[in-house]
Amino acid sequence: MLVQPSAAAWVKAIRAPRIPGSSRARSGVEHGGLRVDRPFAPAVTVPAVDIRRVGTSGLRVSALGLGTMTWGRETGDDAAAEQLRAFVDAGGTLVDTAAGYADGDSERLLGRLLADEGLAGEVVVATKSGVTRRAGARVVDVGRRALLGDLDASLDRLGRDHVDLWQVQAWSADVPLAETLSACEAALASGRTRYVGVSNHSSWQTALAVAGLRESRFGAVPVSDQVEYSLLARGVEAELVPAAGYLGVGLLAWSPLGRGVLTGKYRTGVPADSRAASPVWSGFVDRYTDRRSRRVVEAVSTAADGLGVEPLQVALAWVRDRPGVASAISGARTAAHWRSVLGAAAVRLPAEIVTALDDVSMPASWLPAS
């Protein structure tokens, strides 16, 4: 007779996941491919993606954001158009891009689709400046000339006279902070952006940017910090999350799926068409293929089994509902993958699952993310 696993047993399995190939068994929840009744109620469908304020600002965005890093390269026109339509139909608003994505082709494609689909007034367009690639190398330049030049080029590619959120994509000690912030002031004064934010800034860097702009004639502080945040990347919780809350800065989480690892696609190997199999992207993924990451992936998969949802939806829901997060920004190469991402809007994790995932993903060291 098959014994149905209890909610408590399922949570225990999340806390102590079995890594494929190991000898440890999941006590009380092994079901050998047989169908069993799940111990948790299925997720309740919600009519649309939640809308939230970014920090204490007046800017409101969808709790799930559409990332476009692969647009114009891995994601073609038709797939991008289908993603955008599905996103807006689900109530999504935040679409994030950058001057450096696909050498500007991401912005070109987004601008063209917004015009063709008549959606320019339906979305919150966010872009970033300050990071480019030259001769294959990553170049950071947050000087006034470079930033404003990037912004003007972005507006031209997007076919717009302004963006809703303009973000300085990286910190650089090579340029005085006052110069970087003067570019933000100029962009606000000229109407080329409605709000400014930062990206990949630590707690002290964000605090300096807020203090510097607060003393400007606009008093318009950065409203957001876009940082990597997932069950596999929790370093921001050490200092940035509490600092951002105190400063009134909202967090935009990039790569909430742990660079794709939390989808579970690498549990049994490396798919030939995956990023980990690509010589261009393998280094991006390899960071999260260690034993600790594999344990977290198995815990997420176990939680998904218990809820009757996909692992990526569990991972997204966990990030989306963390304190201070205004939006979890995810991208997709295909429309089918994007539909799964949108399905996370309906997922509300039970408190006991959240606690179990917190425990199993606890970093060995709480050093701040750099």
Which of globular, elongated, flat, extended, rod-shaped describes the shape?
A: globular
Structural class: alpha/beta
Segments where pLDDT lies below 50 for 5+ residues? 23-37, 42-47
Biggest pleated-sheet summary:
8 strands, parallel, barrel
Percentage of helical residues? 25-40%
Strand adjacency order, main sheet: 3-4-5-8-9-10-11-12
- The residue-averaged pLDDT reads 86
Let me know the number of strands. 12
Secondary structure layout:
Layout lengths: L6 H9 L35 E3 L6 E3 L1 E4 L9 H13 L4 E3 L8 H13 L6 E6 L1 E4 L2 E4 L3 H15 L4 E6 L8 H13 L3 E7 L3 H12 L9 E5 L11 H8 L2 E5 L27 H5 L4 H17 L3 H10 L4 E6 L4 H8 L8 H10 L10
Helix pairs in contact: 1-9, 1-12, 2-3, 2-11, 4-5, 5-6, 6-7, 9-10
Highlighted features:
single chain; 370 residues; alpha/beta; TIM Barrel; eight-stranded parallel β-barrel; two-stranded antiparallel sheet; 12 helices; 12 strands; 36% helix
Give structural notes.
The longest helix is centred in the C-terminal third of the chain and has 17 residues, at 291-307. The protein has helices at residues 7-15, 77-89, 105-117, 144-158, 177-189, 203-214, 240-247, 282-286, 291-307, 311-320, 335-342, 351-360; strands spanning 51-53, 60-62, 64-67, 94-96, 124-129, 131-134, 137-140, 163-168, 193-199, 224-228, 250-254, 325-330. The strands form three sheets. An eight-stranded parallel β-barrel has the order 3-4-5-8-9-10-11-12, surrounded by five helices. It has a two-stranded antiparallel ribbon with strand order 1-2. Helix 2 runs parallel beside helix 11 and helix 4 (144-158) runs parallel beside helix 5. Helix content is 36%, strand content 15%. The protein is globular and about 60 Å long. It is built from twelve helices and twelve strands. It starts with 6 loop residues before the first helix and ends in a 10-residue tail after the last helix. The chain has a domain at 47-257 and 310-349: NADP-dependent oxidoreductase domain (TIM Barrel, Alpha-Beta Barrel). The protein has 370 residues and is α/β, with parallel strands linked by helices.
